[in-house]
Amino acid sequence: MNTKVTVSSSYKSNDNLIILSDRDNISSCAAILDKDNMEYLKIAARKEVSFVAFPSVKRLVIVQFLKDNEVESIHREDIRIAGNEMLQTLRHHKVDSVILVNHRSDNRTLEYLEGMVLGNYQFLKYFKDKAARKSSLNTIKVHSEAASRSAVSELKAVLEATCTARDLVNEPQSYLDAPQFSKDIQRIGKACGFSVKVFDEKKIKAMKMGGILAVNMGSPTPPRFNILEWKPKNNKNTKPIVLVGKGIVYDTGGLSLKPTADSMDFMKCDMGGAATVVGIFEAISKAKLPLHVIGLIPSTDNRPGMNAYAPGDVITMYDGTTVEVMNTDAEGRLVLADALHYAKRYNPELVFDFATLTGAASRAVGKEGICFMTTADEDTRRKIEISGHAVYERPVHFPLWREYGDQIKSNIADIKNLGGPSAGMITAGKFLEHFTDYPWVHFDVAGAAYLKQADGYRTKEGTGVGVRLLFDFLKNYSA
Question: Which pTM value belongs to this model?
């Protein structure tokens, strides 16, 4: 994460400040601003400007007015957006450190901080002039009267984890192949306190994980199967929650080659679901959530090499199901299916999977939402939607009606890996459902995991979508 976040119990006369204030009650600012500035502030408040900046030789003081909305989720999102938009002013004034002070009756400091930190994210690893490109803002302090140290610490963990997921997505495949991805997961696990076990190609072959092995056939780089675990002594669930992430580190489409324009160019992002799972593990371990959680990440690239699997092939999956391959670019569901079957050995309480799975999901809801399908109960579905709207990673529910299963019936095998021309995100979900026998939630994050242009505090390229959503769900679940 590019921004250091701390709590400050006081501020000095030379500290840069952002004061979150109500328009109709600015009197508290008189302790900070002189008489002339207070008169100017009164006029500005009546004119409904969004903020007023008071630069001086010693410091910059900004009074931020936040607009209200009766819909709570939109209100919180507007405040995140305001925090992100303030970055432009801070960078203009070359501010390196700022303290957030709350003078509002409706304290929204944490949402404002969230927008600032996520908007200030940068991935500069490969720039020669990274120092020149770096944002001037290094540190954001939260005044202790605005938020508790524990609340700031928890949010910091989630923001750091979101930025970790972004980093992983933004890494090119020239660095982040499947073996290196495993090394990075192990490094993050060691730093955060969760365990990581890695199966190499020999072990994957011994276990007959036919989906992972088929997708990997055209690659010169061996696959990996990663098992993450967070199990604190005070965990509240007797059966674990399992998270599964699609870890296709680069997707050419295989022999069903993608047209390069506007498709293959950014396929380093096809492990966005796996990055989300890693980010969630970082967040829950740093926040020490009292839940037993297991993560499964099958990882490989998908290439049209000499031995690549081909359309028309029949492969045997880890659970023994035979699959007719209709399109080698429908590879994500093959590796996920092996992991979903592996999850059965844990007798899980609940299983989530995250995947940049289908173009159909992106076309259905764009970058504004996440397609999700579930076999879990209605209460779980409702709580997922509540968490999604709370963090503004909004899930859109799609059905798993049995008729969609007809589209993946094969004439020569148990099922095929591609449905018909419509509802592609649902037929992909029906394929995955075949390999489950537990309460299960499928998130297709294809539209939201990677952006070609920044969308407010969701910066260009990797967004880390899903980390904040599932952390909020798991936090509420543990309570």
Answer: 0.97
Classified as helix, coil or strand, 42 is helix
The DSSP line for 365-392 is HGGG-EEEEE-S-HHHHHHHHHHHHHHT
How many CB atoms are closer than 10 A to CB 142? Answer: 25
Per-domain residue ranges of the chain:
4-147, 157-478
Whether the CB-CB separation of 81 and 123 falls below 8 Å is answered with no
Q: In angstroms, what CA-CA distances link 275 with 167, 240, 355, 440?
A: 9, 20, 10, 19
The structural architecture, per CATH, of the domain 157-478 is: 3-Layer(aba) Sandwich (3.40)
Average pLDDT over residues 18-38: 95
Sequence-separated (6 or more) residues with CB below 8 Å from residue 120: 2, 3, 87, 135, 137
Whether the per-residue pLDDT at 288 is higher than 90: the answer is: yes
> Which is the CATH superfamily of the domain at 4-147?
Leucine Aminopeptidase, subunit E, domain 1 (3.40.220.10)
Q: How far apart are CA 153 and CA 137, in angstroms?
A: 19
Contact partners, residue 36, CB within 8 Å, separation at least 6: none
Q: Report the first-to-last Cα separation within the chain, whole angstroms.
A: 28
The residues pairing with 297 across neighbouring beta strands, listed in sequence order, are: 226
Q: What is the pLDDT of residue 359?
A: 95
Q: Catalytic residue positions?
A: 258, 333
